[in-house]
Amino acid sequence: MTRMIFVNLPVTDLAASMAFYEALGFTNNPQFTDETAACMVWSEAISVMLLTHDKWRTFTSRPIPPKTSSEVLLAISLDSRDAVDAMNKAASAHGGTADINPKQDLGFMYNRNLADPDGHVWEAFWMDVSAMPTADAH
């Protein structure tokens, strides 16, 4: 079996969050979607489970952090710098916040950070591995 990751995120408005992630390029898997949760697929191995707060609380009694705090920064690779820019633009246009941190351009790697409507932080990045500096370049 292929190893997979399901990132579980508590959300305040399931429909709005689904629309946000669809705008970023995720697709919905209706097999794991109902009125309390939605499975948003990024790739064959990566999915994001959007869970209403009530559904979230069936998994843990730990408090849901406020929208202004960060527990993790989820990095997601894209095919080009333009795709990174487009994802940030889509985030901003669909209820998220673009450029919550300064964008970073290292030549071989380019990234921009965004937050979804609930404040979950994503780093959209593009990297050209063949252009990475080598250890002996120092």
Protein model, in words:
The chain is an alpha+beta fold and 138 residues long. Helix content is 20%, strand content 33%. It is built from 3 helices and 9 strands; from the N terminus they run E-H-E-E-E-H-E-H-E-E-E-E. The strands form 2 sheets. Strands 5, 6, 7, 8 and 9 form a 5-stranded mixed β-sheet that branches. A hairpin with a 4-residue loop joins strand 3 (37-41) and strand 4. The mean pLDDT is 94.
If you average the pLDDT, what whole number results?
94
**CATH architecture classification of the largest domain:** Roll
Number of strands: 9
Q: At the first level of CATH, what is the class of the largest domain? A: Alpha Beta
Q: How would you name the CATH homologous superfamily of the largest domain?
A: 2,3-Dihydroxybiphenyl 1,2-Dioxygenase, domain 1
Looking at the structure, the CATH topology of the largest domain is 2,3-Dihydroxybiphenyl 1,2-Dioxygenase, domain 1
Q: Could you give the distance between the termini?
A: 42 Å
Query: How many domains make up the 3D coordinates?
Result: 2
Please compute the radius of gyration using only Cα atoms.
16 Å
Describe the global form. globular
Note poorly predicted spans: none
Number of alpha- plus pi-helical segments: 3
Structural class label = alpha+beta
Strand content: 25-35%
InterPro entries: Glyas_Bleomycin-R_OHBP_Dase (IPR029068), Glyoxy/Ble-like_N (IPR053863), VOC_core (IPR037523)
Pfam families: Ble-like_N
Domain VOC: 3-127
Protein name: VOC domain-containing protein
